[in-house]
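Problem: given the chain below (246 residues), write out its structure.
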Amino acid sequence: MRGKSHCLRIWGDLACFTRPEMKVERYSYPVITPSAARGIFDAIYFKKTYNFYWQIEKIEILSPIKYIALRRNEVKDKAPGHSKILAWAEGKEAIEPQWADGTKALFGNDTKGRTQRQTTALKNVHYRIHAHIVCRDNSSNIKTFDAQFERRAAQGKCFYQPSFGCREFPAFFELVQDTENLPPTITQDMDTGWMLYDVFDLATANTSSAKASISVFHALIQQGVLDIPAYSSEAVKKSVEVPEYA
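Solution.
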């Protein structure tokens, strides 16, 4: 089952949708990826108890593609698991902070907990994204989901601040209700090669807790529009699940 198509106008000062083949240094795709676009819709309306996911239909680029070079400090350690953080919040365990800098007295050596990384990001991004809800079963009331999303998006409500690839790059949104008189897209064609589609198997339930399963597709921008194939389409190349230790 699928719902009606919704359209969001999203914009922001900076964005970085990292190409996985660039390894250590961050280099952004020239346009937002379907997974990042889905994350913005999820930030506005998504509940684990509802068996659906957002299917991105197309991405329209409204501002010229421009890059900017940045150097950022990143911590070397990764955050602990959800259960550990929850124990800290409930006061069951002592909080163990992640140190960005320190001394021999703190670490036992001169090792610092941060490192500088080069980031080639996008600046002044502006998109129009079309998407619809896909229910994984026939028992869901999809009209209710559509109505709740439209009400939340029209009021600017979200569960958390949407972002453009990185939390420090906030994304701002507006529900597009008049789809007849829309600003034109840029007139640019670009073959971006293989692009990340998503990092989860969208066909399975409870995607947020599922193991990683990478999928890609051939992204071709035509006159500023990137058409996104359905996840079930053969155009989306899917992989096996990524092991937890990967």
